[in-house]
Amino acid sequence: MPIRDKIYFASDFHLGNSNYHAHTERELRIVRWLDMVKEDAAELYLVGDIFDFWFEYKTVVPKGYIRFLGKLAEFADLGVKLTFFKGNHDMWMFGYLTEELGADIISDELIIERGGKRFYIHHGDGLGPGDRKYKFLKKFFRSPVCQWLFERLHPNLGVGIANAWSKRSRISNGKKTDRVMHQHEWLAEYSRDVLTKEHFDYLIFGHRHMAMDVKLSDTSRYINLGEWVYTSSYAVFDGKDVKLLAFERDLELMDFTAALTVGH
């Protein structure tokens, strides 16, 4: 029996955000990655925006993602702990993935301790100062009233509206996030503020679509997991340290990040 002692983190797959060929290619790449990590994974954290849109009607979920969901079912059958975070694109995950895969669904932050290290994990949307418009929309979209109203729409109409809205996103339009110096990266700043109140060894986020590993102090690091449309980046904790890696990609990193090792 293989030793399962690794914890993997990935985010922003944005499955379903492109044409069928591009979506299928990305899904197959993700499945290849899952095949690699299932050999030693004890836990898998999917840190939001795994789907470009997701809504669970009472008897209907968005079609597709068969290869991906089937692979996650293998993880569940192997006893790998699965944790999904709600992102700004897939905030309407409710009980389906818990019922089918035994996955935990996390709405906001999650604090865990593994191997004597403390982790703060969050998708990253709606944090920090400013962006009041999005924070209002997030609160509204997550409200039971909004969810009840959307559920009244026929799935063909509801999913169609959501897909049209999704096409306006930066990643759907082929726009990479601008590279900025880390002192101006707002999730790094948010992480520094968190550390004034409580110690964490690793603060792990998605959302920003930039693979980053930023040293905040002698004992704390901010890690952004990047995304899977361009970078296919992820992180792994081996019981001692977290490494930011890339799967089947040769990437140029921002100057201030730690080295990103190309995976298998």
UniProtKB/TrEMBL annotation:
Domain Calcineurin-like phosphoesterase per the UniProt entry, residue ranges: 6-209
Gene Ontology biological process terms, A to Z: lipid A biosynthetic process
GO molecular-function terms, A-Z: metal ion binding; UDP-2,3-diacylglucosamine hydrolase activity
Pfam family, one: Metallophos
Gene3D superfamilies for this protein: 3.60.21.10
CDD domains: MPP_YbbF-LpxH
Annotated SUPFAM superfamilies: Metallo-dependent phosphatases
One cellular component term from this protein's GO annotations in UniProt: membrane
InterPro entries in alphabetical order: Calcineurin-like_PHP, LpxH-like, Metallo-depent_PP-like
Swiss-Prot/TrEMBL keywords: Cell inner membrane, Cell membrane, Hydrolase, Manganese, Membrane, Metal-binding
Name this polypeptide is given: UDP-2,3-diacylglucosamine diphosphatase
